[in-house]
Write a structure and sequence with these properties.
262 residues, alpha/beta, six-stranded mixed β-sheet, four-stranded antiparallel β-sheet, 12 strands, 29% strand, disordered C terminus
């Protein structure tokens, strides 16, 4: 059984069609990267998978059950949304930010129990940020904030993480560190669905890449065979001119793109 099954999905904002008959299946485990130009429907698809939007036509099912049949608490125990790095208005500590993930499993107005606190500590240890536990969330780096948000998602109890451009606004070093942690968590059995504007990020960690344009899927397959100069030219309306292989062992292609496809 697929983790997610999307069938004949249509969605519009007013008269603007964003998704058009989209079909997609996502298996449990591994990393799926969505690439595409702005306005291609990537973020809208994520919102539909999170149950934040309802399909205009078609269905979204999670573990064989239509998403509309899940309560918000049930869905939160299955899937966690990890937002882009942001700053909280209040100076919560990192531990308090991660503890918020336990709200999905805690009765309304109930106090957090010993098990909740244990799960928070386990999540902090797993992301290797336990040393930041008592630091104000507003005073740590962007990369550390992103790791705290992933720890919060783990504490939530979900095994599937949906991330919209997780490396946005991070410097190069923090991008690499974050990608490495995501890859490590995927090896441990977690599922990641992430959007990105960086083909090299998808090449480095994704098991599968989905290229989206104008609300449809252009290509879908393993990263190494899906991210090609020809596919990127088609995706972004560019002219391809391959310069050769990148530095190091030469395993990563580098591309120079010129405006205007022939």
């Amino acid at each position: 059984m697929s983790l997610y099954e999307v069938r004949d999905l249509d969605f519009s904002y007013g008269r603007k069609k964003v998704l058009n008959g989209l079909k997609l299946e996502i298996a449990a485990g591994g990393i799926v990267a969505l690439l595409g130009p702005n306005g291609s429907g990537k973020s809208t698809l994520l919102k539909l998978l999170l149950g934040l939007l309802k399909p205009e036509r078609g269905t979204v099912a999670l573990r064989g059950r239509e998403l509309v049949r899940y309560s918000r608490r049930e869905l939160a125990r299955e899937v966690a949304y990890v937002p882009q790095v942001h700053r909280e208005a209040f100076g919560y500590t990192v531990r308090e930010i991660v503890l918020m993930g336990r709200m999905a499993s805690t009765p309304f107005l109930a106090r957090y129990g010993t098990r909740d606190l244990e799960l928070v500590e386990e999540a902090l240890e797993k992301l290797e940020i336990a040393h930041l536990s008592d630091r104000p969330y507003t005073q740590i780096s962007g990369g550390e904030r992103q790791l705290a948000l992933i720890a919060r998602a783990i504490a939530q109890g979900a095994n599937t993480f949906i991330m919209d451009e997780p490396t946005n606004n991070l410097d190069y070093g923090n991008q690499i560190r974050l990608l490495e942690r995501i890859a490590r968590l995927a090896v441990d059995g977690h599922t990641f669905l992430m959007t990105t504007h960086h083909p090299d990020h998808a090449l480095s960690i994704a098991d599968r890449v989905v290229l989206m344009k104008q609300g449809t899927i252009l290509h879908d397959g393993p990263a190494s065979s899906t991210i090609t100069p020809r596919a990127l030219c088609e995706l972004y309306d560019l002219r391809e001119s391959m310069l050769g292989r990148g530095p190091g062992n030469g395993s990563t292609p580098h591309f120079r793109m010129e405006r205007g496809c022939a």
